[in-house]
């Protein structure tokens, strides 16, 4: 568990944050310039704050009140940045071993072979960074960080320099670190798809302050207004119940309802996390017939809030929150109000991010 309290000025910018991060992946998420990198630099010991108290597993790393400051190398943090920062004159293997050089003696360490296997980089070991793709470089950089026996991994926009196919290639490896290596990760990003997929906790940062923190399903419906680019999203967890080979679809259940999804290459019974942009959800008062959208969920309106010229309608669907962003005009025409039952519709194709839920299946064993 890391506990962070920072009060620091840089130029006109005031960083005033407090949050805690436990096991798994905690995302620091927020618009550009909100202060995410500044927080990472202070935690890592790369910048010295005016006032701060940072504790990791009960050990004080910084306490400006008592003048305590643990130097960077003694914090044992594995950092991965946007550009992997590999040494260009060393091979991938030598870069990996450079990480090991920093591992303190007597500490339990990950086995080099296991890390190579975990990250799928066995065939790259003799290559130099110049001949590796962006995604391959990042996998080596992650391996180097892991081999230094870190107690905490911090990743600052590790995928933002990569195109979408490279991103999709590397995400499963970060999931493996989360699920297999189980070192806590602080993950900085302003990409909602990455954060929705990877994180089990989100700290939402805006103008240097923590504006919300919690599970992705609580935070992502609330991002309206932070930046024009951020569309509120629903994060829903559902259980895979089948694969339909002929139509190339997967089927999941959410309460009494069935969801039809693009194919998910995971076994039946797996809990999957689905991300649905609020702009892709339509609402109807009656169950529509003869409509192409395959997914119809019946739910009760919890809240309606103004979002510029639009409204955000939050619906309780089998105990999970689904948000729809519709025009004020549509809301008035339908006479939507809190407590009303509505049908929420969305296409299979809009559900474009999914991953294994890494907590306990709430229904397991019951
Ligand atoms: N060394 C510095 N001196 C003065 N101001 C700085 C310094 N470094 C960053 N800033 C300012 O602090 C604010 C926060 O920057 P920071 O890089 O932490 O944001 P961020 O959320 O990581 O942004 P991005 O997602 O674009 O990387 C910005 O307004 C930035 O201009």
UniProtKB/TrEMBL annotation:
Molecular functions per Gene Ontology: ATP binding
Alphabetical list of SMART domains matching this protein: AAA
Keywords annotated in UniProt: ATP-binding, Cell inner membrane, Cell membrane, Membrane, Molybdenum, Nucleotide-binding, Translocase, Transport
Family statement: Belongs to the ABC transporter superfamily.
PANTHER family: ABC TRANSPORTER I FAMILY MEMBER 10
NCBIfam families to which the protein is assigned, alphabetical: modC_ABC
Protein name: Molybdenum ABC transporter ATP-binding protein
Taxonomic source organism: Rhizobium alvei
Gene designation per UniProt: modC
């Amino acid at each position: 568990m890391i506990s962070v309290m920072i009060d620091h000025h840089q130029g006109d910018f005031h960083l005033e944050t407090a949050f805690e991060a436990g096991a798994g992946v905690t995302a620091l998420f927020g618009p550009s310039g909100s202060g995410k990198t500044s927080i990472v630099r202070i935690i890592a010991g790369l910048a010295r704050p005016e006032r701060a108290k940072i504790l990791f597993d009960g050990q004080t790393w910084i306490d400006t009140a008592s003048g305590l400051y643990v130097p960077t190398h003694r914090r044992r943090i594995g950092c991965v940045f946007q550009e992997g920062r590999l040494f260009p004159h060393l091979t991938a293997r030598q870069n990996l071993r450079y990480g090991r050089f920093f591992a303190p003696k007597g500490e339990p360490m990950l086995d080099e072979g296991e890390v190579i296997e975990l990250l799928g980089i066995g065939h790259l070991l003799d290559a130099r960074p110049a001949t590796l793709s962006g995604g391959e470089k990042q996998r080596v950089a992650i391996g180097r960080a892991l081999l230094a026996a870190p107690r905490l991994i911090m990743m600052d926009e590790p995928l933002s320099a990569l195109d979408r196919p490279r991103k999709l290639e590397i995400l499963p490896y970060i999931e493996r670190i989360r699920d297999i290596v189980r070192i806590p990760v602080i993950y900085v990003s302003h990409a909602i798809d990455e954060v929705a997929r990877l994180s089990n906790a989100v700290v939402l940062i805006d103008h240097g302050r923590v504006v919300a923190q919690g599970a992705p399903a609580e935070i992502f419906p609330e991002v309206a207004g932070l930046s024009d680019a951020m569309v509120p999203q629903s994060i829903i967890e559902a259980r895979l119940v089948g694969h339909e080979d002929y139509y190339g679809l997967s089927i999941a259940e959410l309460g009494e309802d069935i969801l039809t999804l693009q194919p998910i290459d995971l076994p039946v019974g797996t809990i999957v996390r689905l991300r649905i942009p609020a702009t892709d959800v339509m609402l109807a008062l009656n169950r529509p017939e003869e409509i192409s959208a395959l997914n119809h969920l019946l739910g009760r309106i919890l809240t309606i809030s103004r979002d510029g010229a639009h409204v955000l309608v939050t619906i309780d669907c089998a105990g999970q929150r689904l948000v729809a962003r519709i025009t004020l005009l549509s809301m008035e025409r339908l006479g939507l109000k809190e407590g009303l039952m509505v049908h929420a519709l969305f296409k299979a194709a809009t559900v474009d991010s999914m991953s294994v839920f890494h907590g306990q299946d709430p229904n397991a064993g019951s």
